[in-house]
Amino acid sequence: MVEFFFEKFGKVVTDFLEFLGGLGRLSAKTFKDMFHSPQYIQLTLNQIQSIGNESLPLVVVTCLSTGMVIALQFAYGLEKFGGQLYVPKVIALSFIRELGPVFTSLMVCARVGAGIAAEVGSMNVTEQIDAIRALGTSPIKKIVIPRISATLIALPILTVFGILIGLIGGMIICYTELNLTPQFYYNKITETIILKDFFAGMGKTFFFAIIISMIGCYKGLTTKGGTQGVGISTTQSVVLGTISILIADFFLTKLFMEL
Predict the structure, then answer these.
(1) What percent of the chain is modeled with pLDDT above 90?
(2) What's the rounded Cα separation, in Å, for the pair 148 and 23?
């Protein structure tokens, strides 16, 4: 029993260190090649459309419902202390600094991260990536860089939409449940939020975009075992991406608080 435990623990540690090493090598190679020709602009634009347009409905539903729920929770929680007038301020700060960027990134990770891993993994097991190498083209420049660049562009834009939709959801609850006018809600938000809050929230999205796209590409490029391997890589991409976003959010929050 003890030997089995240490064997499993050792395998987990070994796999994790191998993952970190492989991801680090891929990241270094990617950022080295990102600023050199040729640049596949059309592939990047196609990925932006795929990531942005197709993720928008998911982000809208998630942020709208979250904004409404948060408003309800704070409304009934602050009612005991007569602090319902502060609900707009709390919603604005929490959504702009934390909930908007994190929830949007988690939804994009679930859809885009899985999609990247599945797409690249399918290309890998069907030897399409080997064919790209045989034609003298770098798979990193043609496959990895367009997806990373597109995620870096699309995720911040989606986050802005997510924040706006979340604030609208909070306004609906404040108007219907607390009898706070939209003008009062807007005034409280503008009184509370400063540029530092906005940049702190938006700054996280660039790190989250790199996490989502890089992990998805790495798991896709290392896929083995046919269609079953594609499914495993897809699942691992979402799990690792989600955990990495939540861990990174803590350290990024600390960093932006210190700045």
Answers:
(1) 46
(2) 14
